[in-house]
Amino acid sequence: MQDISLEQAISVLLEHTKKIEAVEEVPLLEALGCILAEDAVATFDNPPFDRSPLDGYAFAASGTKGAQKEVPASFRIIGEECAGDFFAQEVPEGAAVRLMTGAAIPKGCDCVVRQEDVTVQDDCILVPYELHHHENYCFAGEDVRKGTLAVKRGTELTAAHLGVLASLGLGMVKVRRRPRIAIASTGDELVLPGEPLRPGKIYNSNLYVLAGRLRELGFEPEVLGILPDDAAKAASFIAGWREKVDLFLTTGGVSVGKKDIMHEVVRCIGTRLFWRVCIKPGAPVIAYTAGDMLGIALSGNPFASYATFELLTRPVLAALAGRSDVAYRAAEGFLADAFPKPSYGRRFIRAHYADGVFSIPAQHDSGSLFSAAGCNALIDIPAGTEPLVAGTRVKGVLL
Ligand SMILES: Nc1nc2c(c(=O)[nH]1)N[C@H]1C(S)=C(S)[C@@H](COP(=O)(O)OP(=O)(O)OC[C@H]3O[C@@H](n4cnc5c(N)ncnc54)[C@H](O)[C@@H]3O)O[C@H]1N2
Ligand code: MOO
């Protein structure tokens, strides 16, 4: 089988990716980043009542006619209302109620004066200027009127949308079912951080990069830990997830070594879509289907798995979730540093991109992850490119 191009690989993956149309109801707090599945219409005015924007006193503005510093208007204080209280009595002319910010404006009042502007004398306030009808007055429905389409079906919910939906009183919302994604690492050499490291073993970093990236992109993966380098065991484990997840990501075991079990796993549980993509790093990636589940077996080298997650898996996630923000954006700019190696095949190197300039860290081997921290881009170097000098114009993708 000949290596396929990155674009061909993405298009094969997308052919086997079905946008999730199913709907689920989730608590509003869990709906961030989800696609709203039905219009959210305000069923009441918000705020639900006329309210005070100030800590002060409410009364009928007509009572301040002709008021000035030397001849203030006087109102008798007949009560007090904090936000959350409800002053049910009608306020007669010449009377005032002390109100805190957010408290409902009682019947009979049509304005509010700031607390600092009045003098309290016994049980009265002295108001030193005229107020007009609806001065310092917030109306019911000022934020959202009853019947307004507050958030449209299909909207990708941001924090502000969650706030709007909360103000409409929606504790649960219908959203497009979120993609179910499982991640696992293969490799008998792997140990989870926190465990002691014995000779020949290394800590599993890939699982943390993938889990972290998925969460950064707004997904909540099932993090399944480490699978042994035993094809039968790994196959039966992964097969057990066929009905439960849309996408199964693994790292490791995809090259040609004795313990590169993912070839056998795919033979046992599904159908291979491709093996090997013409890119460096991460060329030996395998894509497969197992029932309705799509599998992507990324290579184990830490930066290879990171880069191919970005290049191959993000387009799948964007298509599954119907979320355009998950797809990466292209960028162009100048190299701040030289890249000393020739690129016989198409190569992606990590970089930090800002203001049209890509800076490349010194270390960029696929087995090394250290310098990826702080990078936010991959530079796309075409096959057959000589070493690059600083100042070269290059293309890339933003992570
Ligand atoms: N004879 C050949 N050997 C290799 C070839 C080849 O074409 N012919 N390709 C090389 C390339 S390129 C890559 S990339 C790797 C891919 O190997 P695998 O995907 O099978 O990955 P492993 O062998 O399992 O691991 C590679 C490397 O990464 C370390 N690793 C694995 N998993 C993790 C993890 N979760 N966290 C941290 N580090 C991990 C592993 O210990 C190895 O050092 O194959 C080359 N070989
Ligand atoms: O594909 Mo591999 O270049 O060693 O990461």
UniProtKB/TrEMBL annotation:
Keywords recorded for this protein, A-Z: Magnesium, Metal-binding, Molybdenum, Molybdenum cofactor biosynthesis, Transferase
Classification via InterPro entries: MoaB/Mog-like_dom_sf, MoaB/Mog_dom, MoeA-like, MoeA_C_domain_IV, MoeA_C_domain_IV_sf, MoeA_linker/N, MoeA_linker/N_sf
GO molecular function: metal ion binding; molybdopterin molybdotransferase activity
Pathway(s): Cofactor biosynthesis; molybdopterin biosynthesis
Residue ranges of domain MoaB/Mog in the record: 182-319
Pfam families listed in its UniProt record: MoCF_biosynth, MoeA_C, MoeA_N
CDD domains named in the record: MoeA
Gene Ontology CC terms: cytosol
Catalytic activity, reaction form: adenylyl-molybdopterin + molybdate = Mo-molybdopterin + AMP + H(+)
BP GO annotations: Mo-molybdopterin cofactor biosynthetic process
Transmembrane portions of the chain: none
Needed cofactors: Mg(2+)
Enzyme Commission code: 2.10.1.1
Similarity comment text for this entry: Belongs to the MoeA family.
NCBIfam families, A to Z: Glp_gephyrin, molyb_syn
Function: Catalyzes the insertion of molybdate into adenylated molybdopterin with the concomitant release of AMP.
Protein name: Molybdopterin molybdenumtransferase
